[in-house]
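Worked problem 6 (solution included).
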Amino acid sequence: MKFINLRNLPHKTVRLGIAFIISSLPILVSCSDNHDSADQSSLPTDTESFTFFDLGKTIKLTKGVRSDLNNKLGRDAIERRSILDLEINYRGFLKRHFPELAALNQKLNSPPGERVEHNTVKLMYRYAQKRNVPFSLVELVFSDYTKTPILFKINFKVDEANTVETLQEKYGLPEVIDWKEENGKSLFWKKNGDILIVSRIPDRFGNIDHQIVIYYTDNLKLLNNTERREKEEQEQQRAKTGKKAF
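Solution. The predicted structure is:
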């Protein structure tokens, strides 16, 4: 993955594989929603955002979508009601460079120090390379209220697919964040409130890992608001029940 002199990079033909992976046109899919407490009218109406395997901010997780992902990435492991930590790269990275995400992360993990579980569905793919996909780990997190994406993480060692050049051709020149650590650097794009970050992450031995993270900010905010409202309703109900007990 090349992180220097991005503005001088020549225009190259996008590889077929990565062009297929990072699709440009989201496909709208509908499914039933078993959680009536989520405000469907609050869902983002602007579909122009970042996509991964045709999954964008308004695409809902269905059996068909999951089956399609299994065909492309291999069998998944599923986790429900998990913790949700938005922090990446190193402690304080979001606070320094993306304060809005840091503030949202704090809200999602309040009170501090406690294990806060969220009404989410996380799909994890650890064997995508067996399907000739150049990623070592893929994590896709969806709201279990709306079934829409909230956070995608894609990890890989070697940038076999020229990811930066592909993203640049699709989304334009990124903004660059230089780390204090040698060889550490992040590039990011913003689109309609959502954020895509590509990071070059050195370990203590000098080895380089790469990570792509997509934050679907509006969907994250909707999850936080829905959970907060649900918690308030439960507290009110417990108070009423307590009064009726005596």
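Discussion: The longest strand covers residues 194-202.
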